[in-house]
């Protein structure tokens, strides 16, 4: 079994809804930098503002070139027995 990474300690700072509306731009900047906030209304938590996970790198076309091939009969019609099975006959 591989060792688990220790959980990252996240401080979820409560922010009143009115303050969140007033300072939304700076809260979003801080969230993008790694902070997490809980938006509250009348002391009750309503939503969480947190950073997005890193997006995976974009796919680069052509990296699999030469690693596989498409059979010449790839798009030929299927045999009748297989078509019948798909169509529930």
Descriptive overview:
The protein has 89 residues and is an alpha+beta fold. The chain has a domain at 10-52: 3-Layer(aba) Sandwich (YefM-like fold), CATH 3.40.1620.10. Helices cover 25% and strands 19% of the residues. Strands 1-2-3 form a three-stranded mixed β-sheet. Strand 2 (36-41) and strand 3 (44-49) form a beta hairpin. The model is unreliable at 1-7 (pLDDT under 50).
Map the helices and strands.
Elements: E1 12-16, H1 17-22, H2 24-32, E2 36-41, E3 44-49, H3 80-86
Parallel strand pairs: 1-2
Antiparallel strand pairs: 2-3
- Tell the overall outline: elongated
Under the CATH scheme, which class of the domain at 10-52?
Answer: Alpha Beta
As a whole number of angstroms, the C-alpha radius of gyration is: 26 Å
Q: What percent of residues are in strands?
A: 15-25%
**Secondary-structure content class:** alpha+beta
What percentage of residues falls in helices of 4 or more residues? 10-25%
Summary, kept brief:
Helix content is 25%, strand content 19%. It has 89 residues and is an alpha+beta fold.
Feature tags:
single chain; 89 residues; alpha+beta; YefM-like fold; 3 helices; 25% helix; 19% strand
């Amino acid at each position: 079994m591989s060792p688990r990474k220790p959980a990252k300690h996240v401080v979820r700072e409560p922010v009143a809804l009115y303050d969140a509306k007033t300072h939304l731009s700076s809260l979003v900047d801080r969230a993008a930098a790694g902070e997490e906030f809980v938006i509250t209304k009348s002391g009750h938590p309503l939503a969480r503002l947190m950073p997005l996970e890193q997006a995976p790198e974009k796919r680069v076309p052509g990296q699999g070139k030469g690693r596989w091939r498409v059979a010449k009969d790839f798009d030929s019609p299927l045999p009748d027995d297989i078509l019948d099975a798909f169509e529930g006959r």
